[in-house]
Write a structure and sequence with these properties.
The protein is 32% helix and 27% strand. A seven-stranded mixed beta sheet has the order 1-2-3-4-5-7-6, sandwiched between helices. α3 links the parallel β4 and β5. The structure holds coenzyme A.
Length: 262
C-alpha cells in the first residue's frame, strides 16, 4: 500500500470505543510481533483511559493506522505521563504520524496540567533516537540495563532490552524551541557515542547478532559512565549512510522531579 507523504487527511484523535482500543492491540501485535503472553491486552488500554491516561489513535478514515498509549505516573509527588507505546503501521511511516501522535499527547497532557511525559526506547534504534531527541526535543539522563528481560519481539533481536528513559519536559525552552524552530538550542558536546547503520541488519540476522551485542555492551558502558558523570543526551546526528551518534552535554535547564537521581 502506498501512502501520500503528507498524510494530511489522517486524523489524530482519542480512541473512543472498545473496538478502537482492540484495534490498538491488533496493531501492537502487527508492529512488535510479540507472543500473546507479552502483548498488552485491551483491558489495560481500557484502564489507562479510565484512570486518566491516554489512548490516542491515528485514523485513515475508519482504520486505525497508529496509536500512542500512556499511563499516569508519580515522581516524588509530581504527576507525569509514562507513554508506554507508540506505533505506526509500516506503510504509513516516515510521513510525520509518529510526531503528530506525540504532539497530540503533549497538548492533552498540558490541558490536564501535566508538564512531563516519559517513555523508554532502545538506544540501538537510530530512527527512534532521531525522532525523540531531534524532532521532539526529549532528553535522556537514565539508562536501564535489560529493563524487560529478553522479549519475543523480533525488533529486539534477542538482545537484552536496554532502554534509555526519554524525558519530554513539555514547557522547557528546549522543547518549545524544537517545536517552534525545528531544531533544539545548540549543545556544547562533551561526549559522542556512535551507533552504526548496520545495527538493524545485525540484530535481525542470527549469524551477525554477536556484533550487535558487542555494540550494545560497548555503548552501555560509555553511556552509563557519561550519565553518571552528570551528562545528558541532548542531541543526535545521522550521516548520509544512516549511521547515528548520540551527543552528550550538560543541560542548562533545571527541569527535574528528582527521578533521574535515583
Ligand atoms: C517509531 C515510530 C512510531 C515512528 O513513526 P513514524 O510515523 O515513522 O515517525 P515520523 O514520520 O513522525 O518520524 C520519523 C523520523 O525518523 C526519520 N527516520 C526514518 N528512518 C530513519 C533511520 N533509519 N535513521 C534515522 N532517522 C530515520 C524520518 O526521516 C523522520 O524524521 P524527519 O521528520 O526529520 O524526516 C514507527 O517507526 C514505529 O511504529 N516503529 C516500531 C515501534 C517502535 O519502535 N515504537 C517506538 C518505541 S515504543
Amino acid at each position: 500500500m502506498s501512502v501520500s507523504p503528507t498524510a494530511s487527511e489522517i486524523l489524530i484523535r482519542n480512541c473512543e470505543s472498545l473496538d478502537e482500543l482492540q484495534a490498538c492491540v491488533l496493531l501492537q501485535k502487527e508492529v512488535w510481533n510479540f507472543t500473546d503472553l507479552e502483548l498488552i491486552p485491551q483491558r489495560l488500554f481500557v484502564v489507562a483511559k479510565k484512570i486518566g491516561g491516554q489512548g490516542i489513535g491515528a485514523f485513515d478514515r475508519e482504520e486505525l493506522v497508529g496509536f500512542a498509549m500512556a499511563i499516569p505516573g508519580n515522581h516524588h509527588r509530581h504527576l507525569y505521563f509514562h507513554s508506554h507505546m507508540l506505533a505506526v503501521r509500516d506503510a504509513y511511516r516516515n510521513c510525520g504520524l509518529g510526531r503528530r501522535l506525540k504532539l497530540f499527547q503533549r497538548d492533552d497532557a498540558l490541558h490536564n496540567g501535566i508538564e512531563l511525559i516519559e517513555w523508554t526506547f532502545d538506544p540501538l534504534e537510530i530512527k527512534n533516537a532521531w525522532l525523540n531527541l531531534e524532532r521532539l526535543g526529549a532528553i535522556c539522563r537514565r539508562y536501564v540495563v535489560n529493563q524487560y528481560g529478553i522479549t519475543s519481539s523480533p525488533l529486539q533481536g534477542g538482545l537484552p532490552s536496554d532502554r534509555f528513559v526519554a524525558e519530554w519536559w513539555l514547557k522547557s525552552r528546549r522543547v518549545e524551541t524544537t517545536l517552534r524552530e525545528g531544531h533544539h538550542p545548540p549543545v556544547n558536546v562533551e561526549c559522542r557515542v556512535p551507533v552504526p547503520a548496520e545495527i538493524y541488519q545485525w540484530k535481525a540476522d542470527s549469524a551477525m547478532r554477536a556484533r550487535a551485542a558487542e555494540i550494545q555492551l560497548q555503548n552501555r558502558a560509555l553511556l552509563t559512565r557519561a550519565l553518571a558523570d552528570g551528562l545528558a543526551v541532548l542531541g543526535y546526528e545521522r550521516d548520509a549512510h544512516g549511521n547515528g551518534e548520540f551527543l552528550l552535554g550538560r543541560w542548562d535547564e533545571d527541569w527535574s522531579y528528582g527521578a533521574e537521581r535515583h
